[in-house]
Design goal:
The protein is mostly helical. The protein is built from three helices and no strands. The chain has one domain.
């Protein structure tokens, strides 16, 4: 899909430099950035859901569950 967006000049210039460094197109850079942001936000939502579900229990169990969830999420390719 083709679209037009507006970004501050300094951000645009940083993006141009990064795309050149990575040797990818501007479109690929912005698609990759958006994809990574969406994945990060989903991971945060999952973590918050776990915190809500297990947050009122045994503090030691809660720490263990959070640590296990973070290790699992870190290994996932998302």
């Amino acid at each position: 899909m083709k679209t037009a967006i507006s970004v501050p000049d300094a951000l645009f210039e940083d993006g141009e430099r990064l795309a050149a460094e990575l040797r990818i197109s501007r479109s690929a850079l912005y698609a990759r950035a958006l994809r990574e942001l969406l994945l990060r936000l989903r991971s945060d939502e999952i973590r918050e859901s776990w915190d809500r579900a297990y947050g009122d229990g045994d503090p030691e169990l809660e720490r263990a569950l959070r640590a296990a969830a973070r290790r699992t999420l870190a290994r996932e390719a998302w």
